[in-house]
Structures are given as structure tokens and as C-alpha cells.
TrEMBL record:
<feature type="domain" description="VOC">
    <location>
        <begin position="4"/>
        <end position="123"/>
    </location>
</feature>
<dbReference type="InterPro" id="IPR004360">
    <property type="entry name" value="Glyas_Fos-R_dOase_dom"/>
</dbReference>
<dbReference type="Pfam" id="PF00903">
    <property type="entry name" value="Glyoxalase"/>
</dbReference>
<dbReference type="InterPro" id="IPR029068">
    <property type="entry name" value="Glyas_Bleomycin-R_OHBP_Dase"/>
</dbReference>
<dbReference type="InterPro" id="IPR037523">
    <property type="entry name" value="VOC_core"/>
</dbReference>
<protein>
    <submittedName>
        <fullName>VOC family protein</fullName>
    </submittedName>
</protein>
Amino acid sequence: MRVTASAVSLNVDDVPASSEFLQKHFGFREEMAADGFSSLKRDDAAMNVIFLRRGLPTLPADFRDVGAAGVLVVFVVDDLAGEDARLRAEGVTITHELTEEPWGERFLQVADPNGVIIQLVEWVTPS
């Protein structure tokens, strides 16, 4: 098998709201879009993020009405404190304050308009 690209697809109620949130606050650009569908990309990201409107008939029947729950979309960044300040200045609500774990993971979380959790991570030397 040869993997040529990767993506995560998330079912949401309001596709344009989630798409605009990633574009405005995280620098993604919309590569493809249609009714109930948006595929977003960053040149420096290892995966695309796809939003699908809940209930689409192209989704498996037992999956159609399930929203993106229990999933973290994680981006590793270089300057977490700087990202924290930038997001706050842009009016984004931080849903989990900047925290450092004993194993060296520093992170914070925000939620998009559909409740999709986006976690920013910076790895540091454990204290």
C-alpha cells in the first residue's frame, strides 16, 4: 500500500461555520466545497480536514446522524504561548487553558462553532 494523502472527516450540522473557523483562525484554505461538504488544506499540515453535513445519504446509514464527538483535531505548533495570545486577540474562546503535562506535552483547546475540539500542542522537555 502507498498512502498519497490523509484526511480526517467530521460530521457537523453547519459545514460553512466549521470551514470558516479553520480558515480564519488556523490558516486552512478550502480546496473543494459543495452542499454539505468542505475539504480544507494547509501546505504544512500532514492531513486535510473535511467537514460533512450530518445526514448525508452518502454516509453509512448507521453513521449519518452522528456528529463529531469524542474526537480531538490536534495540531502541533512551535509557539503555543504565542498561539494562545493570537487566538484570544481574535476572540476565540479557549475551552481548556494552557496546561503542561508531566511527560512534556503542553496544550490548549478551543471549540469550533459545531463543538469540534481543536487542540494545539507543543512538546517541551519534561520538568
